Amino acid sequence: MAETATAEPKPRLSPRKRAQRIRIAQYVGLVVVLLVAAFAANWDQIVDVFFNPDDIKMTFEQGLWDALVKTIEYSLGGFVLGLAGGTLLALMRLSSVGPYRWIATAYIEFFRGLPTLIVFMVLSLLPIAFDGLTVPFDPFGVVWLSLGIVGTAYMAETIRGGIEAVPRGQTEAARTLGMTSAQATRKIVLPQAFRTMLPPLTNELILLVKDSSLVYVIGFSAANYDLTKLGRELANTTLNLTPLIVAGVAYLIITLPLSYLVRRLEARTGGANVRRFDH
Question: pLDDT by residue (tens digit) across 122-142?
Fold first, then answer.
């Protein structure tokens, strides 16, 4: 009697092969979804509402580049104030003097928990509450101060982490050379700390650029509009979203190069980027 032939079991896929097939299936699924969305969309309506050529041209003519420059000026001013204040608070937080630590901790916790919009609104209304009070460098002063106050709280923690990352031996070596504690901090610790803090500080600048969009709560004249304020005003005038889309693209012109810089700095320093997620 002839022996019955038995089928050989199929070889099992290796984990690498299985992962490749899953990845291919995901790509195919994504392409299918995109094709369905592309064919189902009303492109004439999308172009008319979001990418209207006449409204794009009008947005440029109504001062897009001026608003872009104003956004950069607002952001850089807030960043400079935040960096200076954050450095001071970080040193206070690390101080051996108890009241300094308490004041710094209270400031950081308070303004990290407070929405930036409220800071803008309070500072813009202070002259109403206090007769004769004026914020210097009007109209930039209120924006710089608002962004600087919030940026200080976040940068202080970033700077404190960078200072603590510097080996204590560096400070001890400086003290043995006759430096005071302040000299050691200024000449030895801070220069090394700032090299490792560059990526998270650059990320803070990106966040301040986006926070500058809150300028719309302040009653500025058209000459001082930022990108968001300009986009909102033109969108309300035209009843079309194209100006806001153009303003969003202008923000990307600022933030994308900064994001690329953050990645390059992180790759060079090997440091972890400290981010905040309050928005």
Answer: 888 887 777 777 777 777 888
2: left (phi over 0), alpha (psi -120 to 50) or beta: beta
CATH of domain 71-220+256-269: 1.10.3720.10
Percent helix, strand and coil across the chain, each to the nearest 5: 80, 0, 20
CB 82 within 8 A of CB 272: no
The token pair at 166 is 């510097």
Give Cα separations from 77 to 62, 63, 71 (angstroms). 25, 21, 10
pLDDT in tens, 217-240: 887 777 788 888 889 889 988 888
Rounded distance between C-alpha atoms, residue 204 and residue 69, angstroms? 19
Two tokens at 96?
């051996």
pLDDT (tens digit, 9 = 90+) per residue, 246-262?
A: 999 999 999 999 888 88
